[in-house]
Design brief:
heterotrimer, A mainly alpha, B alpha/beta, C mainly alpha, A: mainly alpha, MetI-like fold, 12 helices, flat, C: mainly alpha, 74% helix
Chain lengths: 297, 357, 260
């Protein structure tokens, strides 16, 4: 086989299996629902037939029009984006030291430390959230501490539970491993020699971090940010369980369209907008990262 | 090597998934903890079959799954408005009345409803009401009434329990309560009345701790929340838990004098049921008084079965939220399913309520 | 071993504490003598006893474990391929198919997969759930593997090819050890996602299929009893033991470049 044919075969062998799998089990079903955004909902739930009794194709853009003409949905989108951004930042702040510690450990401890990070997440999501409800409850130690301190300053007590704070804490908690793992995978390959050389040349700890480690770790940071921000944008279970009356996110609205309102076309429209927004954000972040990399190179 | 690994993985999965059952199976799709384990065991020995249970926690989940085409279920247990939607969607198999003679045990007041005239498709199974639940010590302390919806809608009462009240996270239930509070029917579809109800809700919202349908009972039981808009079964259960934990208060049911929503859950057979014969056997079995009473004794649910009364614990028969006296019965309403236009309007109002400050 | 700053240790310990305080509550409350997961009442082993007799919960846990292993295995293989492909070649379609499943709300994916399976007359069951899980896990693995590969030069791999290694061998003996931490991180992520998934599993499960999240979420409106804490504690321990055993049995698989 010629070298070029061999290269093409290698490319195909690596690209084809995931591509085919995703085309069949992801793209095809999703296209069904994208089409659904142009259909009408059935009275009792689900979708109206594609071809109505008169034999005509029943497609319309009613649901898109509705999205554009009701501004409340954009407000909720913006709020969800805000929560997701804050979650990503805090995840990064907590994950970076963890990932650094694990990556710089000897082989014996490294795997164990990594497993320790992910172990809590093999317990069920619901009881982990319930554990947070116990920690943040009005009669628990934390609330007493916070409200006691506030009382010293004459401020009224604030509820920790059923609030935006509780939602954020749990969002960070639930997404933390998805920031730690990509960061670790990237930091692990950093060459200590670079840092030692920098130290010999007089750089202090902060300079070594900010000018060497962090830029090198950016691909890991972006991967982690993507794996936290994008799912956090669509989450609904956490606000449902411990959110306050104002903590409705776009994920909750989408769920309502599919369940309570039984308006699948509109749910589809909201989902498409969410997905496109998330992909555009991820794409722009990646584009910015590439430009940054090219600039520094 | 990859291909071999993948093939081996799927082979293992197929082998693991392949059922090795010798007996017949009845597939029951039900709420969790909505049938007593003893009842299931008794049925299994009577019919010499296995009852395979899967669960949903909301009517809407059931409707969504069936609307997308899922099959394999024999008996479902939807609430009346969901039964209405299923009938309209052609999802149910008509019942063969000759196979379920025990239907005569059901109180005629619950038969022949507008959403299923003649009980062609459904028979009532168990009931609950959506009412107030409260911490008796706290409510007495604060001097708040417990027999009116005003206590969760009027700021003059809410001020005293700010941050200690939850309401259900359900547009249908909350609008029904607000409509009842305003003196309208819970099934009123006049958009002007809906606007009035939305205004009432928006005014009260700042005082509520949360819209919650899942963890509110827990918080009520431990004393973090003092007043809830919730289901009578859950409130009954909360009191049991509170007493078991030795709490210094009781969780009581408050039935508002303006009336409330009655939710009747029904047994129906899915149109593609694999074993409609077993399904009918099961339905007839559950219509027997003794079997029906076991659930009531377990979770404090209402019971439309006249034959079951003699098996139910007397203390339960006294609870107005579970067995409403005639005067109250007249004020209870079952929710009707809405048209898509109405559902969209309600969702618009609900979204605006949720997204408002 | 490198000397690490005490600030790093302090920050890492805070992070570990953040991770583990809720987990400790989960484990401790599995011994709580109360039906609710709300306040400590007293010590009891009853919930473990209940679990031992609860055939359905045990079967659900077993199903979740099996689906988790299969889904994470297959999605790690496919995801590693995808990550490698995206790093090496300029692709347009695959990156979209990788990022989209992460962005699309689960409820949409769940409903659409159900409709899809019904259209194909595919019987719902454990297999349909596994297929669905693989579909949304591939993206996570691919992104992590690509992040690992970023900035990594291909000179080593090219050198291996120049020395006469076949593409498969070059991958197995050169590339794979280099990306192994990324692959393992991706596999761990995929497993975690799979055993805890509810929405997609709800829609793609068959009439008799119960996984642990399905069993647990259905309790959400009544009471999530400490039996759930018990089964979660045991599942965590079991998974930890399985991984340690796997690591012992195939040390070469887990060794990455730089270890000898």
């Amino acid at each position: 086989m010629t070298a070029r044919a061999s290269k093409r075969l290698a490319r195909w062998a690596v690209t084809a299996p995931p591509l085919l799998y995703l085309l069949v089990f992801f793209a095809a079903p999703t296209l069904i629902m994208v089409l659904a955004s142009f259909r009408s909902p059935a009275e009792f739930g689900g979708l109206a037939p594609l071809v109505d009794e008169a034999g005509k194709l029943d497609l319309n853009v009613d649901s898109y029009v509705r999205f554009v003409t009701e501004p409340v949905f954009m407000r909720v989108f913006a709020k969800s984006a805000g929560y997701a951004t804050v979650t990503t930042l805090f995840c990064l702040l907590l994950a970076y030291p963890l990932a650094t510690l694990i990556a710089s450990s000897g082989r014996k401890y490294r795997d164990l430390l990594l497993l320790l990070v992910i172990l809590p997440f093999w317990s069920n999501f619901l009881i982990r959230i319930y554990a947070w409800m116990i920690i943040l409850g009005p009669n628990a130690a934390l609330a007493k501490l916070v409200n006691g301190t506030l009382a010293l300053f004459g401020a009224p007590p604030v509820p920790l539970l059923f609030s935006g704070f509780a939602v954020l804490v749990c969002l960070v908690y639930v997404h933390l491993p998805f920031m730690v793992l990509p960061l670790y995978a990237n930091l692990e390959k950093h060459d200590q020699a670079l840092l030692d050389a920098a130290q010999d040349l007089g750089a202090n700890a902060w300079q070594r971090f900010w000018r060497i480690t962090f830029p090198l770790s950016l691909p890991g940071v972006y991967a982690g940010a993507a794996l936290v921000f994008i799912p956090a944008l669509g989450i609904f279970a956490i606000p449902d369980i411990l959110g306050g009356p104002e903590d409705t996110l776009i994920g909750n609205l989408i769920k309502q369209q599919f369940l309570e309102t039984r308006d699948w076309p509109f749910g589809s429209v909201l989902s498409i907008v969410l997905t496109v927004a998330a992909l555009v954000l991820a794409g722009s972040a990646a584009w910015v990262a590439r430009r940054g990399a090219r600039r520094d190179a | 090597m990859t291909a071999r690994l993948v093939a081996a993985a799927f082979a293992a999965l197929f082998a693991f998934a392949a059922p090795a059952h010798a007996r017949d199976e009845l597939h029951l799709y039900n709420w969790n903890n909505y049938i007593a384990p003893e009842t299931v065991k008794r049925f299994e020995s009577v019919c010499q079959c296995d009852v395979v249970q899967t669960y949903y926690s909301d009517n809407e989940e059931l409707l969504a799954k069936l609307a997308a085409g899922a099959t394999g279920y024999d008996v479902l247990v939807p609430t009346s408005n969901a039964v209405q939607a299923l009938i309209r969607g052609g999802q149910l198999k008509p019942l063969d009345k000759t196979a379920i003679p025990n239907i005569r045990n059901i109180d005629p007041a619950y038969l022949n409803t507008p959403f299923d005239p003649g009980n062609q498709y459904s028979v009532p199974y168990a009931m609950s009401t959506t009412i107030l639940g409260y911490n008796d010590v706290k409510m007495k302390e604060l001097g708040l009434p417990t027999d009116t919806w005003a206590v969760i809608f009027e700021p003059k009462y809410l001020e005293k329990v700010k941050g200690r009240v939850t309401v259900l996270d359900s547009a249908n239930e909350l609008f029904a309560a607000a409509l009842k509070y305003l003196g309208y029917s819970a099934n009123d579809v006049d958009p002007k009345h809906w606007d009035a109800a939305a205004a009432v809700i928006r005014k009260a919202k700042p005082y509520w701790a949360a819209f919650n349908a899942s963890s509110y009972i827990k918080e009520l039981t431990v004393g973090n929340i003092w007043l809830v808009h919730g289901y009578s079964n859950d409130i009954f259960q909360a009191n049991q838990d509170a007493q078991a934990a030795g709490r210094p208060f009781h969780i009581l049911q408050g039935v508002p004098k303006e009336g409330a929503v009655l939710a009747v859950d029904n047994m129906v057979i899915h149109k593609n049921a694999p074993r409609p014969d077993l399904a009918l056997k099961f339905i007839n079995f559950m219509l027997d008084g003794r079997n029906s009473a076991e659930l009531t004794n377990l979770i404090g649910s209402g019971n439309p079965n006249m034959d079951a009364m003699k098996y139910i614990k007397p203390a339960l028969l006294e609870l107005p939220a579970v067995f409403p006296p005639p005067a109250l019965k007249a004020k209870l309403e079952q929710l009707k399913d809405l048209t898509i236009a109405q559902r969209r309007l309600r969702n618009k109002l609900w979204t605006e309520i949720k997204a408002s400050k | 071993m490198r000397r690490r700053s005490p600030w790093l240790w302090a920050a890492a310990i805070v992070a570990y504490a953040f991770l583990y305080v809720p987990l400790l509550i989960v484990v401790v409350y599995s011994f709580n003598d109360s039906r609710l997961n709300a306040e400590w009442v007293g010590f009891t082993l009853d919930w473990y006893r209940t679990l031992a007799h609860d055939e359905q919960m045990l079967r659900a846990a077993g199903n979740s474990l099996v689906i988790g292993i299969v889904a994470s295995g297959v999605s790690t293989v496919l995801g590693t391929m995808a990550g490698l492909a995206m790093h090496r070649y300029r692709l347009r379609l695959l990156p979209i198919l990788i990022f989209a499943p992460i962005a699309i709300p689960e409820i949409l994916t769940g409903v659409s997969l159900l409709i899809f399976f019904v259209l194909l007359n595919f019987t719902l069951g454990l297999v349909s759930v596994a297929l669905a899980h693989i579909a949304f896990c591939i993206g996570f693995v691919a992104i992590v593997v690509r992040a690992r590969l970023a900035g990594m030069d291909e000179t080593l791999t090219e050198a291996a090819r120049d020395c006469g290694a076949s593409p498969a061998n070059a991958f197995r003996y050169v590339t794979l050890p280099l990306i192994m931490p990324g692959v393992i991180a991706g596999a761990l992520m995929a497993f975690t996602l799979s055993i805890d998934d509810f929405v997609i599993t709800f829609f793609t499960a068959g009439a008799g299929t119960v996984t642990l999240p399905l069993a647990i979420y259905s309790m959400i409106k009544i009471a999530v009893t400490p039996e759930v804490n018990a089964v979660s504690t045991l599942l965590m321990l079991l998974t930890l033991l399985l991984i340690i055993a796997a690591a012992r049995l195939s040390p070469s698989l887990f060794r990455s470049q730089g270890d000898h």
